[in-house]
TrEMBL record:
<protein>
    <submittedName>
        <fullName>NOSIC domain-containing protein</fullName>
    </submittedName>
</protein>
<dbReference type="GO" id="GO:1990918">
    <property type="term" value="P:double-strand break repair involved in meiotic recombination"/>
</dbReference>
<comment type="similarity">
    <text>Belongs to the Fanconi anemia protein FANCD2 family.</text>
</comment>
<dbReference type="GO" id="GO:0005634">
    <property type="term" value="C:nucleus"/>
</dbReference>
<keyword id="KW-0832">Ubl conjugation</keyword>
<dbReference type="Pfam" id="PF14631">
    <property type="entry name" value="FancD2"/>
</dbReference>
<dbReference type="GO" id="GO:0031573">
    <property type="term" value="P:mitotic intra-S DNA damage checkpoint signaling"/>
</dbReference>
<keyword id="KW-1017">Isopeptide bond</keyword>
<feature type="region of interest" description="Disordered">
    <location>
        <begin position="1"/>
        <end position="54"/>
    </location>
</feature>
<keyword id="KW-0539">Nucleus</keyword>
<dbReference type="GO" id="GO:0036297">
    <property type="term" value="P:interstrand cross-link repair"/>
</dbReference>
<feature type="compositionally biased region" description="Acidic residues">
    <location>
        <begin position="1"/>
        <end position="14"/>
    </location>
</feature>
<dbReference type="GO" id="GO:0070182">
    <property type="term" value="F:DNA polymerase binding"/>
</dbReference>
<dbReference type="InterPro" id="IPR029448">
    <property type="entry name" value="FANCD2"/>
</dbReference>
<dbReference type="GO" id="GO:0007129">
    <property type="term" value="P:homologous chromosome pairing at meiosis"/>
</dbReference>
<feature type="compositionally biased region" description="Polar residues">
    <location>
        <begin position="30"/>
        <end position="39"/>
    </location>
</feature>
<dbReference type="GO" id="GO:0000793">
    <property type="term" value="C:condensed chromosome"/>
</dbReference>
Amino acid sequence: MWSDAEDDLFDDFADSGPTAAGGDSVRDSGGTSLSQRNFSGKAMRAGELPTDTQRRDRVVVNYNTDHGEAVDPSNEFEKMLLREGIEVRCDENYKKYMYIGSTTSDALVTKLESNMRVQRYKDDLLDAFEKALEEFDNLSTYLEPTHSSCGIQESIFRVLIICRSSQAKAFDLLMGHLQQLQKEKQNSLNLSQLCIAQIRFINRIYHSRALFCSIFERDIEKWAPEIRNALISSIPEVLTDVSVQLEAVRELHSLLLRDVKTDPIGCKLAIISALSLLNCDAETSTKVNHILTLYRLLDVLL
């Protein structure tokens, strides 16, 4: 037997109601066709979804979850950044970080690059940056990612390395502080790794020769093995100019032949890995391939 609901449904279909000649639906006094009514009695057009099934609310995603409090600039560099809309803030644990507002790090690079076309601004900014780095706490603040209403962005240090006008100077400052961290040794590993992270996967290198000097003027063979090997592995990314790569190959080949005291095997493997990615002359290439063959054979024997 049919249920009461099913009987009512068939009754609705059976009761076609009054129709005009030709089978057209009769319109009510308001001019609306009876076939254009929904079950709630409200007018609707053919193909239109009932209003009860339409989504009325839109979900708005807000990435600005930053709740830090702005603090006064502690040096001239931070004052200059504040004029560009970049604040120093503190989180709930009173840890300082940089907040760049509603922009992105890419947009910040473009803005600072435009400003540094004025030589005086460039000199003042980089001099103030160098002086600010004399405070050890500022180093970690500028190395760590910035915050914005768009989410986490690149660090201030990396932004300056990406900028064409400040790349050479910022990179040299980074290498200088990395060298200093190796002398301190204690509690510097994480900060040293942050330094290495600043120079990885940079989209464009403008001053390969200056960066080459910044690297090989340091006593990298005496650095902590993890940091030294990571720096050596990054050299093919940092030195993109072919002529500079040839010089880097000679420097690395010389380092390969030295008596490195700490983790000599790891150091040699990092050098060989870097050499295999650099351009070099035929003679050096033959030597590198010979060394690679020897190490592969040694690896098999071990």
